[in-house]
Each structure stands twice: as C-alpha cells, then as structure tokens.
Design goal:
This protein is α/β, with parallel strands linked by helices and about 500 residues long. It has 15 helices and 26 strands. Strand 25, helix 14 and strand 26 form a beta-alpha-beta unit. The longest helix has 17 residues. It starts with 5 loop residues before the first helix and ends with a helix.
C-alpha cells in the first residue's frame, strides 16, 4: 500500500537516475539530483526541529522550487508554494494565516519576505549532508492522511483560502489522472500553470511515477504564440495540460495557420470553457491528438472528472464527462435532492478520497463548503459543494453550466454570462471575451480583444443573442488581463468597469 507520494521518487531515482526530470532554460535536474536535493533539504529542516508544520517555499518557478517541495515532505512537513509575482498584500495575508516558522527562499526572493520570518536559503540547505536514518524515522511515522501541501485560492471575501491536501488524495489523483492522460516514460510535459496553484500537480507527480520529463515554459511565451509553438517543437513536448484561455488566444490569433505543434499527442484543458471555434482550430491543426476536457476544484485535489472528445465530436458544448475512479459527483437541486434527469440544472457536489482536509486555520469557511452528505445522515461523510452549476446530457455525461455567481437575473430572464462570452468568441476577429454584470444598474458589460469596430461587433452579437442578452456596454481592450494561473482576471475587470 502506497502511503507517501515520495515513494514514487524513491523508485524512479533508483530506476532512471540520470534521466532529466524537471527542466527549464537554466536548470535541468535529473531524478537522482532531485532525490538527493530533497533528502538534503529534508535533513536540514528535520535537524532544525521543524516537523508536521507548514513550510513556505518562496522561490522563482523552476526545477529548484520543485525539489524544495519534495524536501519539505521528506522532513514530515507540508509545503506552501508562493511566488514573487503574487501581490504583496496577498502574500502578507497568507503569512498572517499560516504564521510559518520557516521559509525556503532563493536569492531573488529573500529581500521580499515579511519582516521577522526565519529564512533558509535554498543554495545553502541543498549542501546539507543527508541524515538517512533521521529521514527513515520520519517516513516510518507518516500516514497517508498527513498533509502534503497547502494551496491558497482566492476567497469571495478577498481573504485567500488555504486548501490542505493529504498524501492519500494526491496518490489517488496521480493514479487516475495518469491513466486518463496515458502517461509513460516517453511523456514530455510542457507546464503552463504556476507552481502555487494545484494545476501543476498534473505534471509534477506523474513525472515521478513514470520517469517522464517536464519543461517549465517561460511565462512570457504565452503572450507570443509563435515563440510558444516553436518552444513546444524544440523541446519535443508531446503532452500539455493548460487552462483553456491559453489555447484560445493561440487559435484566435490564427497562429496555427502558420505553425503547428509537431509532437503533441495529448491535449488536456480545463478551468474554463473552451470555445467551440477555437477548439475546432486546434483539432484541425492536431488531428492525431487526443483532446481531453478536465474539470475539478482545488478543494478536491484538482481535477475530478474528464471527457475525451471522440473523433466525430460536434456537439455545441463539450461535456466535463464522468468522475475519476473512486470519485462520485452528483447534482443537488435547491432542496438538496439528487438530480438524475437530463437537462435539469443543479449544484455539482463531490465526494470521495479526492475531497481535501478543508481550509487551513479556517473552520468557519470549511464548515460552509465541506458539509455532511445531504443525501443521508447515517454516518459522517464529507461532501464538497463546488458552487458550480451542471446538468446531465442524454448520454449521462455531466455538463458544466456556470458558476452560481455567473448566473444572473435580468428583466425576468436567467442569463449565463458564459453564454454571452461564447457567442462573442464565435465571431471572426474576437480573440478574447469576458462578460460582467453591473448589479446596481442592471447592465451587461462585455470586454473584448477584437479587430472589429464597435458597431460591427454589436451587429454580430445582435444576430447571435436574444435582445435581453445583448450587452449594454462594450469595452475594447488591447489585451485581456489574466490571473497568474492564466485565467481571465474577472475581479480586475470588475474593478475597472463595474
């Protein structure tokens, strides 16, 4: 029985010690180097007396940060990934929640730490002589429900929420996701997600399990699609798991008409709806690739279900499909009754090993989201209420509708803001779109990156949408603002335009 995620690293470092594991343009760590550095870092933390507590890893994104994560776990602690690109006030709030005893940093982040925090320099602690008996004693005491990381998500109140995941949920996730993606020793991942969000798990741990390789793609390349595709080809990257907006921008700018990814055979997307027009452009450019839609919240260890598009897929919406193995997803109506009928909307709820341990040092918000299964009261069973609306199609596949807070009511009609965005993205010349609702003035606001004149865009929208869904205000942007993990920054747009 596997109880610790680092057992993957133990096995692969023995089998493929000299193979490149995690790489960027400056550093390439083999599995042996990764293993050795994790043991040195684990020894340094353990010998300093740190145990069963959060250790912040505040470093530049790259292979060294990953080795620090694993070093924290070696010490019997759990890592909390941060990055210098995060706003300083957010970092301060996270430190205030965690109250960590120690931070691992590098030369670029050392001076950006809050005052009074004990810091260990990465370049120093990787030189620590390994104390193998001490590490073995720590491993012998660990169980699979011990925490492995805390990842902070944005809270609706503005206060970040620290989601705590354990070894058991991550191991379960790795095993199933790897089957879905068909990961092997020959897999070469191209990572897009920051290391401080759970999306990076799709590359980090399957790489350990199979002896695959992961390249950390420079963030700037996602603003220059030709460079991005060239990078994929140069590194022979064959598997990508990106937010849908990363794919959308490339297709909308028609880069795929000039240059195609030559080696991609697995294309997974999630976190946002992939507009049909841009999805079709990718399917045309990469006809031999598998396209997989993934869905799942951070509170359930990342992705929880999937749908692989068949070759003849032509439905108007891509399902999020069926749950991962050992996961149950169901819909509840407003009376907390289970929905089984196709076409009836309800809140998506998830139960199973994937459900995490809740929010760090936040019992009130944990109790609101992680609830007793409302379908029975016979024994304690935590269920996560996602706040997402979904429905079943006739084939019993789950379809994502929207966030509850993206469904608004205007002039007596229920409106999905995502439906307006999809209509805009289906118009030639529109590269990105985000629809907002001004509750006070009852106005729909559409922000776009587009080559169309405002009047032409308004005419096109009028041909695609009913009158009550046509935006009242159009804002033309040079670029669509994105959050650090690549999603459209809705909150930032609301601050500007609502």
């Amino acid at each position: 029985m596997r109880i610790n995620v680092l057992s993957y690293l133990d096995e692969i470092a023995a089998r493929l010690p000299n193979k490149a594991a995690f790489c960027d343009d400056d550093v390439q760590l083999t599995f042996a180097e990764l293993d050795n550095r994790s043991r040195a870092i684990g020894t340094a933390l353990a010998c300093a007396g740190f145990a069963s507590e959060p250790v912040v890893v505040f470093m530049q994104k790259g292979p060294c940060a990953v080795s620090a994560f694993f070093g924290v776990v070696r010490a019997g602690c759990f890592y909390v990934p941060l990055d210098e690109e995060m706003p300083s006030h957010r970092i301060d709030m996270i430190f205030d929640t965690l109250k960590p005893s120690v931070v691992i940093c590098d030369e670029t982040t050392h001076d950006k730490l809050p005052v009074g925090v004990e810091a260990l320099l990465y370049d120093d602690i990787i030189r620590t002589p390994v104390n193998e008996p001490a590490l073995q004693a720590i491993a012998a005491q660990q169980i699979d429900t011990d925490p492995i990381y805390v990842v902070f998500t944005s809270g609706s109140t503005g206060k970040p929420k620290g989601v705590v995941a354990c070894h058991r949920s991550v191991i379960d996730y790795i095993e199933t996701l790897s089957d879905v993606l068909q990961v092997s020793e020959n897999t070469i991942f191209g990572n897009q997600a920051p290391l401080y969000v759970d999306a990076c798990l799709k590359e980090l741990f399957p790489t350990l399990k199979f002896g695959a390789s992961t390249w950390f793609i420079p963030k700037s390349y996602f603003s220059f699609p030709m460079k991005l595709i060239t990078y994929l080809n140069d590194k022979r990257i064959n598997t990508v798991c990106w937010v849908a907006s990363a794919f959308t921008m490339i297709a909308a700018l028609r880069v795929l008409n000039e240059l195609i990814p030559q080696h991609l055979h697995t294309i997974a997307f999630g976190s946002e709806v992939f507009p049909q027009k841009q999805l079709q452009a990718w399917r045309t450019a990469c006809p031999q690739a598998r396209f997989i839609n993934l869905y799942g919240p951070t509170e359930c260890t990342g992705m929880s279900c999937y749908y692989e598009l068949p070759a003849d897929f032509d439905a108007p919406r891509v399902p999020i499909g069926r749950p991962f193995r050992n996961t149950d997803m169901f819909l509840l109506d407003d009376d907390d009754q289970r929905i089984t009928q196709a076409g009836q909307a309800g809140e998506i709820c998830i139960r199973g090993t994937c459900v995490t341990l809740g929010y760090y040092a936040d019992p009130e918000r944990t109790a609101q989201a992680f609830v007793q299964n409302p379908l029975h009261s016979r024994y304690a069973e935590p269920v996560y209420r996602t706040g997402d609306l979904g429905e079943y199609d006739e084939a019993d596949n789950l379809l994502f509708i929207s966030r509850r807070d993206h469904q608004i009511k205007r002039a007596g009609y229920r409106i999905e803001l995502g439906e307006i965005e999809s209509a805009a993205l289906a118009i030639d010349g529109v590269a990105a779109a985000c629809c907002l609702f001004d509750e006070a003035r009852k106005k729909l606001i559409l922000c776009t990156v587009s080559t169309l004149a405002r009047a032409d865009l308004q005419t096109e929208l009028g041909a695609k949408l009913p009158p009550y869904m046509i935006p009242n205000v159009l804002h033309a942007l040079d670029t669509m603002p994105l959050t650090p993990n690549g999603k459209i920054d809705r909150n930032g747009l609301k601050e500007r335009f609502v």
